[in-house]
Write a sequence for this structure.
């Protein structure tokens, strides 16, 4: 069975500082990996995804993530955060061999302070 | 991409009653997914709805409690039956894009049971 672990439930950071949100997964098969963002009182929006190919994936809003197969990680990074990045971030994995049911991590609350 | 509309966006319901949530997609899709997000927690898949067949429920979710309809390729409903305060959650509808490489989410239905 697949699972996703987001190592930090909350990450406080000052505006314009860099940030890394950590995600580890477990799976016996190859997977697709995703990062979603949820702003207050809204649904989920896709930030970026890894399907295959280059291990460095660039997404929207200046975010990027790196797939590391040996460490089964898919950490999300941004070199300089804004107040507007304050949100809940979810890492998710799916099995491309199945019907791509998504398994979500517990989420990381990013709080950007001025 | 897919645009998903959910109704209602929020509701406050009395315990013991039922609420039906509607999900409309702007394109035809084979599968529609229903998730629950309990307060402060991640998303958990309730069931997968295919047009023309019974929904497939995940462990811990049963049809009597969460009956689902899927009358056509653009619409689905989820009913939360005989509600209790523990059912207070955000319920989200989701579909996958082409080639099943990403998921799109509705804005969610915020349910409070009193």
């Amino acid at each position: 069975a697949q699972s996703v672990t987001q190592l930090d439930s909350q990450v406080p950071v000052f505006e314009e500082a860099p940030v890394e949100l950590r995600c580890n997964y477990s799976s016996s098969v190859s997977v697709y990996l995703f990062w979603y963002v949820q702003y207050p009182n809204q649904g989920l929006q896709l930030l970026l995804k890894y399907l295959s190919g280059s291990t460095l994936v660039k997404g929207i809003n200046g975010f990027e993530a790196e797939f590391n197969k040996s460490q089964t990680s898919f950490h999300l990074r941004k070199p300089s955060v804004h107040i507007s990045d304050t949100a809940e971030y979810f890492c998710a994995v799916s099995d491309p061999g199945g019907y791509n049911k998504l398994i979500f991590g517990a989420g990381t609350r990013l709080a950007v302070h001025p | 991409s897919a645009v998903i509309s959910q109704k209602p966006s929020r509701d406050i319901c009395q315990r013991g009653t039922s609420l039906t949530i509607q999900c409309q997609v702007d394109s035809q899709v084979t599968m529609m997914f229903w998730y629950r997000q309990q307060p402060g927690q991640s998303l958990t898949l309730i069931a997968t709805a295919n047009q023309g067949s019974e929904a497939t429920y995940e462990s811990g979710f049963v049809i009597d409690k969460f009956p689902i309809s899927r009358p056509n390729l653009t619409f689905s409903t989820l009913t939360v039956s005989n509600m209790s305060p523990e059912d207070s959650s955000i319920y989200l509808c989701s579909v996958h894009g082409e080639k099943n490489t990403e998921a799109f989410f509705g804005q969610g239905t915020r349910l409070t049971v009193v």
Notes: The interface with chain A takes residues 4, 31, 33, 41-45, 48, 92, 94, 96, 100-108, 110 of chain B (CB under 8 Å). Chain B has no helices and eleven strands.
